[in-house]
Amino acid sequence: MAASLTDRFASIRDPRVERNRLYPLMEILPLVVCATLSGAEGCCVPG
User: What pTM does this model have?
Assistant: First the structure.
């Protein structure tokens, strides 16, 4: 049976300090996967 991305990410520990977490890790990881698959090379907007 194939696992969803959410199932795969569930076992990943969030290394960030609790008080510094603006967004849940489970919302960030899918964005990172999509960005990586679409060729993103950094986190800054070119300008």
Answer: 0.64
